[in-house]
Amino acid sequence: MKNKAGQLITPEISWKEITPGGTVYESGTAHQFKTGDWRTMIPQFKPENCKQCLLCAPVCPDSSIPVSGGKRLDFDFDHCKGCGICFKVCPFGAIDFAKEEK
User: Fold this and answer.
1) pLDDT for the residue numbered 13
2) pTM reported for the whole predicted model
3) Contact call for residues 13 and 2 (beta carbons, < 8 A)
4) Spatial contact of 44 and 95, defined as CB atoms under 8 Å apart
5) Which of 17, 53, 80, 90 is 20 to 30 Å from 24 by CA-CA measure?
Protein backbone atom coordinates (compact mmCIF):
# COMPACT_ATOMS: atom_id res chain seq x y z
CA MET A 1 0.00 0.00 0.00
CA LYS A 2 1.20 3.51 -0.71
CA ASN A 3 0.61 6.80 1.02
CA LYS A 4 -0.86 9.81 -0.76
CA ALA A 5 2.60 10.84 -1.98
CA GLY A 6 3.05 7.43 -3.63
CA GLN A 7 5.55 6.10 -1.09
CA LEU A 8 5.27 2.42 -0.28
CA ILE A 9 4.16 1.94 3.34
CA THR A 10 6.58 -0.46 4.99
CA PRO A 11 7.65 -1.04 8.62
CA GLU A 12 10.59 1.29 7.98
CA ILE A 13 8.47 4.32 7.00
CA SER A 14 8.26 7.20 9.48
CA TRP A 15 4.98 7.69 11.32
CA LYS A 16 4.86 11.19 9.83
CA GLU A 17 4.66 9.71 6.33
CA ILE A 18 1.85 7.20 6.97
CA THR A 19 -1.57 7.96 5.53
CA PRO A 20 -3.61 10.16 7.88
CA GLY A 21 -6.27 8.21 9.75
CA GLY A 22 -5.39 5.02 7.90
CA THR A 23 -6.90 6.38 4.67
CA VAL A 24 -6.54 3.95 1.77
CA TYR A 25 -5.46 5.73 -1.43
CA GLU A 26 -5.37 2.73 -3.75
CA SER A 27 -7.47 -0.37 -4.21
CA GLY A 28 -6.63 -4.04 -4.12
CA THR A 29 -4.17 -3.98 -1.23
CA ALA A 30 -5.62 -6.74 0.98
CA HIS A 31 -3.27 -9.41 -0.37
CA GLN A 32 -0.26 -7.34 0.69
CA PHE A 33 -1.12 -7.80 4.38
CA LYS A 34 -1.29 -11.07 6.31
CA THR A 35 -4.40 -10.64 8.43
CA GLY A 36 -5.06 -14.20 9.62
CA ASP A 37 -2.66 -14.05 12.56
CA TRP A 38 -5.27 -13.23 15.22
CA ARG A 39 -7.63 -16.10 14.41
CA THR A 40 -8.58 -18.38 17.35
CA MET A 41 -10.68 -20.88 15.38
CA ILE A 42 -9.51 -22.52 12.15
CA PRO A 43 -11.36 -24.27 9.33
CA GLN A 44 -9.97 -27.57 8.10
CA PHE A 45 -10.70 -28.65 4.53
CA LYS A 46 -11.67 -32.31 4.05
CA PRO A 47 -11.29 -32.81 0.27
CA GLU A 48 -12.66 -36.36 0.43
CA ASN A 49 -16.08 -34.95 1.43
CA CYS A 50 -16.04 -31.97 -0.96
CA LYS A 51 -18.47 -32.15 -3.90
CA GLN A 52 -17.07 -28.93 -5.45
CA CYS A 53 -20.42 -27.15 -5.11
CA LEU A 54 -18.44 -23.96 -4.36
CA LEU A 55 -21.02 -22.65 -1.89
CA CYS A 56 -18.21 -21.79 0.52
CA ALA A 57 -16.11 -19.54 -1.71
CA PRO A 58 -18.52 -16.65 -2.33
CA VAL A 59 -19.57 -16.38 1.33
CA CYS A 60 -16.01 -16.04 2.64
CA PRO A 61 -15.62 -12.39 3.67
CA ASP A 62 -11.84 -12.57 3.29
CA SER A 63 -11.62 -14.40 -0.07
CA SER A 64 -9.64 -17.08 1.74
CA ILE A 65 -11.03 -19.97 -0.28
CA PRO A 66 -9.18 -20.01 -3.59
CA VAL A 67 -10.87 -21.49 -6.66
CA SER A 68 -8.91 -22.60 -9.70
CA GLY A 69 -10.25 -24.37 -12.76
CA GLY A 70 -13.73 -24.55 -11.22
CA LYS A 71 -12.47 -26.37 -8.11
CA ARG A 72 -11.88 -25.05 -4.64
CA LEU A 73 -8.44 -25.41 -3.13
CA ASP A 74 -7.26 -25.45 0.48
CA PHE A 75 -7.64 -22.31 2.60
CA ASP A 76 -5.48 -19.22 2.36
CA PHE A 77 -4.53 -19.07 6.05
CA ASP A 78 -2.59 -15.84 5.61
CA HIS A 79 -5.97 -14.09 5.30
CA CYS A 80 -8.53 -16.42 6.94
CA LYS A 81 -9.83 -14.92 10.18
CA GLY A 82 -11.66 -18.06 11.37
CA CYS A 83 -15.20 -16.66 11.24
CA GLY A 84 -16.75 -20.08 10.47
CA ILE A 85 -19.15 -18.96 7.75
CA CYS A 86 -17.72 -21.55 5.34
CA PHE A 87 -18.22 -24.28 7.94
CA LYS A 88 -21.87 -23.29 8.42
CA VAL A 89 -22.68 -23.14 4.71
CA CYS A 90 -21.05 -26.45 3.64
CA PRO A 91 -23.82 -29.07 3.17
CA PHE A 92 -21.38 -31.99 2.76
CA GLY A 93 -19.25 -31.77 5.91
CA ALA A 94 -16.16 -30.93 3.89
CA ILE A 95 -15.08 -28.31 6.40
CA ASP A 96 -14.33 -28.90 10.08
CA PHE A 97 -14.00 -25.99 12.47
CA ALA A 98 -11.78 -26.28 15.53
CA LYS A 99 -9.83 -24.24 18.04
CA GLU A 100 -6.48 -23.28 16.56
CA GLU A 101 -3.47 -24.45 18.50
CA LYS A 102 -0.69 -21.87 18.17
Assistant:
1) 79
2) 0.70
3) no
4) yes
5) 80
